[in-house]
Specification:
Rossmann fold, binds NADP nicotinamide-adenine-dinucleotide phosphate, 323 residues, alpha/beta, 6-stranded parallel beta sheet, 9 helices, 16 strands, globular, Quinone Oxidoreductase, Chain A, domain 1, 7-stranded mixed beta sheet
Length: 323
């Protein structure tokens, strides 16, 4: 089978397509015939050698890719609830790599994918969707609240915006102006240009800030903290960028809490609930571009711009391809 691996850290050119043995699933695993993988910021961070959190875990050679979708080809002896041929989406074990024609992964990390979207759409979203889902939970987002989604046009942000709307919140999204119509189509009640030097000055009485921006900025954090209501919540996806003491002090004075998203949630259950929202038309998956496996370098270059609209997908095999 074909797989993309890196044997050294560096630019997009270090990714090579090579032949590998098809993995054999363990008792608690499924073998997934992959159709599509998501392309996430973590993929290029890993490819470049990692950040202070990831570095200790990166041992070459490495496969790339956090999430994806495909069809179950084999089922481990202890796995219940799936059948061969099921179409699934999920996140395999961290750093095991999804840019591959087959992957073996813990069954608990997968769910049946939404029945009204393509493999490219389903494969593009699991990691981002879980981050956004976890963010709604940590933020305790509920009907009638005013929720600010910062970086609302990206992979996590575009889903968070829609999850918050599906809970009945009033959602304000930030993006650059070229994405204003996009955010409105996704259901944003208000849109704000984050390039406006004092964008948070336009905001007030925010119950929950969900910061899904790929750009780490103490200034942006401080401005958004200023817009929070007393007792509000600030949730961030910027795991490698801890909250500063000064920022936490400001929140404490307003009795606000700060939380960082994490991966420790019930993946299968969360993905099943997300699938229901997608099937019910409450959440739209936007894949702005699909790259074939051979063009993984171009896909990485696009994600590195930090201006992807929605998601991009890496197509591992075409849906029409004979089994
Ligand atoms: N993807 C994951 O599964 C995952 C998991 C954990 C953590 N994270 C972290 O979460 C962050 C977001 O991830 P993502 O996958 O959603 O990223 P992404 O899709 O690459 O984000 C792209 C979006 O960010 C917006 N953006 C760019 N500069 C901005 C700024 N200065 N302020 C606000 N928005 C800005 C862009 O909007 P415009 O084009 O309109 O500027 C674009 O739509 C990253 O730091 C990532 O490392 C991601």
């Amino acid at each position: 089978m074909k797989v993309i691996k890196i044997h050294e850290f560096g630019g997009p050119e270090v990714m090579k397509i090579e032949e590998a043995e098809r993995p054999v699933p363990q008792a608690d695993e499924i073998l997934v015939k992959m159709y599509a993988s998501g392309v996430n910021p973590a993929d290029y961070v890993v490819r470049q050698g990692g950040n202070h959190i990831l570095k200790p875990f990166l041992k070459l050679p490495l496969g790339l890719g956090l999430d994806g979708a495909g069809e179950i080809e084999e089922i481990g002896s202890d796995v219940a609830g799936f059948e061969k041929g099921d179409k699934v989406y999920g996140i395999p074990n961290f750093l095991s790599g999804t840019y591959a024609e087959f992957i073996a992964a813990k069954a608990t990390q997968f769910a049946i994918m939404p029945n009204n979207i393509s493999f490219n759409e389903a494969g593009a979203i699991p990691s981002c969707a879980l981050m956004a889902w976890n963010g709604m939970d940590l933020g305790k987002v509920s009907a009638g609240q005013r929720v600010l989604v910062h970086g609302a046009a990206g992979g996590i942000g575009s889903l968070a915006l829609q999850f918050a709307k599906s809970k009945g919140a009033y959602v304000i999204g930030t993006a650059s102006q070229r994405n204003f119509d996009f955010l409105k189509q996704l259901g944003a009640d208000e849109v704000i240009d984050y390039k406006d030097e004092n964008f948070a000055g336009l905001l007030q009485d925010i119950d929950v800030v969900f910061d899904a921006s790929p750009v780490f900025s103490e200034g942006a954090r401080m401005m958004m903290a200023g817009a929070l209501k007393d007792g509000g919540r600030f949730v961030s996806v910027q795991i490698p960028y801890p909250f500063s003491e000064a920022f936490l002090d400001i929140l404490a004075k307003k009795h606000c809490e700060a939380k960082m998203v994490r991966r420790e949630l019930d993946v299968a259950q969360s993905l099943s609930e997300i699938a229901k929202l997608i099937e019910g038309g409450k959440v739209r998956v936007v894949v702005s571009r699909v790259y074939p496996m051979e063009k993984a370098a171009e896909a990485h270059a696009e994600v590195e711009t930090k201006h992807v609209r929605g998601k991009i997908a890496l197509e591992i095999r075409k849906e029409s391809e004979p089994i």
